[in-house]
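[agent] plan:
  1. take the single chain provided in the ticket
  2. run structure prediction with default settings
  3. attach C-alpha cells to the ticket
  4. add a short note for the reviewer (M.T.)
[agent] executing step 1
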Amino acid sequence: MSNWLLCVYRDWLCHVVSHLRQELLKQGHLHIDETHVQVLKEPERKNTSDSYMWVYCSIRDQARPVRYFEYQPGRGGKYPEAFLKGYTGYIHTDAYSGYNGVKGVTRCLCYTHLRRAFVDALPKDIHDPKASKPAEAVLRLNKLFEIEKEREALGLSLSRATMSNRLLCVCRDWLSHVVSHLRQELLKQGHLHIDETHVQVLKEPERKNTSDSYMWVYCSIRDQARPVRYFEYQPGRGGKYPEAFLKGYTGYIHTDAYSGYNGVKGVTRCLCYTHLRRAFVDALPKDIHDPKASKPAEAVLRLNKLFEIEKELEGLPPEQKKKERINREKPLPEAFWSWAELNAAGELPKPKLHTAFRYALNNRQEFFNYLEDGNCSISNSLAENCIRPFVIGRKNWLFAGSPKGAAASAGIYTLVETAKANGLDAMKYIKYILSDMPGSTFLENPEYLDDYLPWDPMVQERCR
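[agent] step 2 finished; step 3 output follows
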C-alpha cells in the first residue's frame, strides 16, 4: 500500500501540489513555520537526525487559501531562500535567523512569540519583585491583541501586520508633512538640546540585523514658547548625521562631549555639567573614607555649588540670568578648572578619575560657553528626558522591523512628545490631524500646515 501511494503521488498528485505552490507564490502575504520530523534512510545522515517539515500558508482572509507543506533535510536558511526566490511580498515568521537571508520580502514577526517570551520570564511567585517587568510587558502586548479583538467584533478582521502597514501609510501620506514642518520650526529657534540612543532595525541595506542604529532627538529649550521634540532615525552615530540636520544652523546646541558633534559648523556648543559631575561620581571608590575619594568628592562638591546657584536663578529673564551668572557663577568654574589642572597631574591613565579629569580639561571652552547667553543651560538633561519614553518603549518592542518602520516610529514619537510639551492630549492631537488634513490643500499651499502645529489656537482648544 505504501509503494502504491508513492506511485499515485508521483504520477498524479504531485502535479496538483506543484500548481498549488505556484498559486501560493502569487499571493502577497504568507505565514511560514517549520517543525522537526525524523526521516529514515536519508543519504549520509543518521536515522536519529532531525529533518524538517516546512509549511507555507495563505493569510486568513485569502479568497483562495493554500497550505503548502515541504519536507527538507534541515532547518537552514537556504530552504526558505530557495522556496521564496523571486518572491517580493510579506512573510509572517518567528524570529529565527534562518529567514534573514530571504531577499526581497518584508518580514513581519509574531507578537504571540514575543508575549510568550515574557510569560516564560515570569517567576512562579507573581508577588516576587522580579515579576514587575515581564508582567508589564505582557500587559502592554495584551492591549495590542485586545485592539484586534475589538475590530473583529465590529466585523473588521485586521491582522497586526495590516495595522502596522496601515500605520506606515498614514505616516507617509499625512503625519510626515506635519513632522517636516515641525523640523522647520525647530531650526528657527536659537537654542537646541541634542541626544541619541541606539535602536535595532532589521532589513537595513548591507547591514546585519544585529547592528546598532540610532534614534536622535533634537529639542527646544525648557523656556521656549513653542517647544518641539524632534526624533530622527539614522543607521549610525557618525557626526555626518547631526552635521546634515544642522546644516546652516547658527545657534547654541547643548550636547554631551561626543566627538561626533565636533564637525557641526556655525554653532556654539554648550557641554553638560550633569555628565561632568557624573564622571566624578563614577570615580568615587565604594568606601567614601578611602583616601582615594578625596579628589572626586571635592570635584562633586565644587560642581554641586554651581547647580545650587543655577537653581536660585530659575525663572529669571535671560539677560538678568546672564548678568547673575557672570557675577555669581563664573568664578566657580574658573576655580574648578584651575584646581583640576593641578590635581590631574600624576593620575594614572586608566582609572576613572583620570578619565573624569580629561573629560573636563579637554573641553574647557565648551563648558564655559553657557555663560554667553542666559537662554543656555548648564545641563543636557532635557534631551535625556525627551528620549526616555523611547528608551522605555524599546525595552518592550525590542526592534523596528524595517528602516521605514523606524522612520515612521520617529515621526510618531515627534508628534506625541511635542504634543505633550505643548500641553496637549497626544491622542486627540493625532486624531485632529488625521480628521482634518484630508480636506486641506496643504500640498498646494504649504502654509496651511501651520494650522496643524500644536500651538495653533484651534489645536490648543480642541486637543487639550
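[agent] step 4 note for reviewer: The chain has a mean pLDDT of 90.
[agent] ticket updated
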